[in-house]
# Entry
Amino acid sequence: MTELLIALAVLAFLAIFVVGQYNKLIKLNVAVDESFAQIEVQLKRRADLIPNLVETVKGYATHENATFEKVVQARAAATTASTVPDVAAADGMLTQALRGLLAVAENYPDLKASANFLSLQEELATTENKVGFARQFYNDNVRALNTAVATIPSNLFAGLAKVASREFYEVDDPQDRKAPKVTF
Amino acid sequence: MATFNFRTLQLANKRKTIFLLISLGLLSWLVAVAALSYFGGGGAAIVPLAVAFSLFSVWVSYYSSDKLVMRMTGARIIQESDNPKLFGLIQEVTIASGLPMPKVAIVEDDAPNAFATGRNIDRAVIAFTTGLLDVMDRDQLQGVIAHEMAHVANRDTLVSAVAATSAGAIAIVSDMLMRMMWFGGGRRDRDSNANPLTLIISLVVLILAPLAALLLKSAISRKRESLADATAVAFTRNPSGLRSALEVLAQDNTVVKQRSNAVAHIWIESPLDGKSVSQMFASHPPIQQRIETLQKMEGTSLN
# Structure
């Protein structure tokens, strides 16, 4: 009787342990998915700001077609990308193009003083930061998941939970690796 | 690995809080034992009574902390359309931290300051004085927001409620027993087998315990502030924003027009600075020390 109870207790403990490990891995994996979705939400929001911004700048700066073209192209690429490295690359390109656009705006004092441009600039600054923080949160979640997938004991359950290590969101622009900080 | 990494700082501060909370628990237990040994059966009745009373008073205020603190500070909830820039900044920090969007409030006061309250993550309120919003730039404000959201993430309303409950219960027990002693109460079977040394020690414990509890409570509050600074850096990875915000607060010597000292501990910068008896009773670490810690974090890798 005692042996049976001990065996049952050991089994119960094992079951709780396995369920705990399994659920931990699933939760980490879901957190990665969710935080990637957040990056996409913020990138979409930034893309939505661009036509308005380009129109506003065009109103003052008429001879900067090359810069506009670059922004529009980068935006198109960013809205079609889907895998992590593709999204990251398009994101980096768009950031560069936007920087170019805002540098152009520097040359037009009337534009810089317009209320519309100022509010767009603030909106772009906060969206740019949100993209940066969404990346950072995603990478933190990937780090947590990859650590769990690679360390004992959770690595033993990765196969069972069908969870594997995930890709970091790497941006090529070295400026973007630093803390998200926008000073246009 | 550098010591001034936000991860190691977060861990160290969490560990110290746990140690302090355990000390507070042991102190409560010691007070109960002392009460029993000094007053026998009479004391035994008071302990659960004091705990119940303290639990009730603290947890009522914890449960309605959002409304209560808002009323005591005169904070007013605002909507996104009232200050889109501030909301944008707060959304940035919610994305960085994975926390839900808190309610946002404004306190009409020229002294720059801010606080967070609410009984849980979903009912969090963060408030800023108009003075703070006027003087801070984007990075500084982001640092302050991150500090307040760090309090939310670390559940500091709950931690301070726990600390206040035990400190309150200890104060009540000690107070009631002292009164009983004053009025000639005390142990009825004193002549039976009580050791006089035990009685003296019990008496000393009862006298000193409320003071010790207050010291522990203040120490816990200080650790939570340091923890919130470290967690804020974990959110923004930008120690310089919060550092320069604290420098602005340190230089500014206007003080929030307090309606009540009871809420002094919740502000980012203590409104009681200089008023407290000594550093040991302060609810916040010295602001200069917080600035130095953040400066050291600026010097180390942020990942």
Summary: Chain B has two domains: 6-64+157-212, 65-155+221-298. The mean pLDDT of chain B is 83.
